Amino acid sequence: MNPDIEKILYDQAQVEARIDALAETLTQRYQDQFPVVVPVMTGAMIFASLLLQRLDFKLNIDYVDVSSYEDNAESSGRVRLLRDLSHDVTDRPVLIVEDIIDTGHTLKFLDQLFASRGAKSIATCALLDKPSRREVDVDAAYIGFEVPNEFIVGYGLDYNGLYRNLPYIGVLKRSIYE
């Protein structure tokens, strides 16, 4: 274990088993629908890669890059679109793939953005959900794990660009980010 990690919440086997289950559910849901699958970079990169390999239906992959953290450990609540889609989502199902749902601001921003562009439907698949931090009401249909109000890293989640590559989901020691 990395010495900066206080504890491991979910090991690699647990995460991969949950991704398998999510992929099976999504494959049943999106069979014959041809959605645009939209990972939210950079945090969802690892989760999305593993999930996409397991999906068994026709899809387009695009991505957005957004920021609400502005190099801080706390969300600012303001979401900025840094990289937009290249696909038209008009009359297409959109599946947002997110690493973690925290305050909900990013997801609400993306829901409104894709709705304003005429998406047929919008759903979210997130590896992690931290409902105790929610500031806005959002709905995520597909969740991997619910996590406590701790600083979570691994499987794409980071602190200052570090720890994304950890093969488990862990809690970062408070002394690292305070």
Mind sketching the topology for me?
Elements: E1 5-10, H1 12-30, E2 36-41, H2 45-54, E3 60-61, E4 64-67, E5 80-83, E6 93-101, H3 105-116, E7 121-129, E8 142-146, E9 152-153, E10 169-172, H4 174-177
Parallel strand pairs: 2-3, 2-4, 2-6, 6-7, 7-8
Antiparallel strand pairs: 1-10, 4-5, 9-10
Provide a compact summary of the structure.
The chain is an alpha/beta fold. It has 4 helices and 10 strands.
Feature tags:
178 residues, alpha/beta, three-stranded antiparallel β-sheet, 10 strands, 25% helix
How far apart are the termini?
21 Å
CATH topology: Rossmann fold
Average pLDDT reading: 94
- The CATH class is Alpha Beta
Main location: cytoplasm
Domain Phosphoribosyltransferase: 9-159
GO molecular function, one term: guanine phosphoribosyltransferase activity
Protein name: Hypoxanthine phosphoribosyltransferase
Structural description of this entry:
Strand 6 (93-101), helix 3 and strand 7 form a beta-alpha-beta unit. The protein has helices at residues 12-30, 45-54, 105-116, 174-177, and strands at 5-10, 36-41, 60-61, 64-67, 80-83, 93-101, 121-129, 142-146, 152-153, 169-172. The model has no long low-confidence stretch (mean pLDDT 94). The protein has 178 residues and is α/β, with parallel strands linked by helices. The chain is globular. The strands form 2 sheets. Strands 2, 3, 4, 5, 6, 7 and 8 form a 7-stranded mixed beta sheet that branches. The chain has a 3-stranded antiparallel beta sheet with strand order 1-10-9.
